Request: fold
Amino acid sequence: MPGPGYAFLGQEERQNVEEVLKNWDLTRFAYDAPEKTTFVRGLELSAQQVFNSPYAIAVNSGTSALLTALAALDIGPGDEVIVPGYTFIASLGSIVYSGATPVLAEVDTSLTLDPQDVENRITARTRAIMAVHMLGAPCDMDALTAIANRHGLAIIEDTAQACGATYRGQRLGAIADIGAFSLNPFKVITSGEGGLVLTSDERLYKRAYAFQDQGWSPLRADRDQSDGDILFGLNLRMAELAAAVGIAQLDKLDTVLGQVRSAKQHLASLIPTMPGLSRRTLHDAQGECGTLLIYVLDDPAAATELAAALDSKTMINSGRHYYANMPQLAGLADATATPFRRATNNSTPDYRKGSLPQTDDVLARSIALSVGVSDSYLGAGFGITARSTTDQIAQTAEEFTQAATKILG
Ligand SMILES: *Cc1c(COP(=O)(O)O)cnc(C)c1O
Reply:
């Protein structure tokens, strides 16, 4: 089972898809006419409501949403973007393809950005902080916002893994300058492939809209482009079939989250506290999605042993999420990575294993139990799903407790 939303796909999604097929209305724009009523526009309006954001744009993936956010902020060659050394590779890829330089920062026991380390890495070139709400839980947004304000930086919220979560009552992705979501099958809700961009800033909205739709003004309404920035765009538009699924999933978001959260709470309540075993730090325990239950052990050797006993792995072994498991970064550092062969600037950051000792340490001691998201690349091969029965949850808790007691007791 991929993400929890996948388990809730049903009649509502099917009905919308059949509606699209009835007239073969496969795209939000027929020719270059202004848009009429479509599922893509419906999804955008619904997202504005759900996340309480003045503007929403549906795009074809989470990676596209991040690239669009960076383009809206006019981030490019010569600019630096601070990003955690623990995140999905797409966070880095989007920065690289915008032409900017990713600068890696440490995560702490929240498995999200360590604000102090972020501030230490700010240079004259820094333009933005990519705050990745990792594994369903918010970053320390108060601390990051204070730092961004102090240094005149933008914050991009990478909300791909935390759709619907809140921080002090505000939905993630709608707190900072611009937010990016993914609707791929491993996320909280899905449209098959898809993404969303949120902002409350009209100028960023216009630029973001233009970037994902060949430089057009919003909804192609201003045919003469008399208003706003003129920029080249790409085609990153969401298709109607995806939106037909996505809009039904967005309607179910709070239902999905409710089930995931109560499953997580139940699982956690059955696992006793023991010395050497802590829970991940949460910056908003009520607001997080609850898609994973994460333990941070005191001792890395014990963590490795426990992971093996569960037929899982510690998080330092997560492919494509931990910087030292991304061979692409080496090519970036020596300017041989496609298509960035030209020398970048002289001060290429250090991406080698060991350059983020705190991140290396925390991930070597962390184990994720799947609750709604089961993804071997996250090291979450052991756990339950949003649909697990009380008996299954009890059995999983028992297995974990026995293995942990044997190793730590
Ligand atoms: C999934 C994910 C993305 C990319 O989303 P896609 O829809 O797969 O392109 C970006 N950032 C993070 C943190 C993710 O987990």
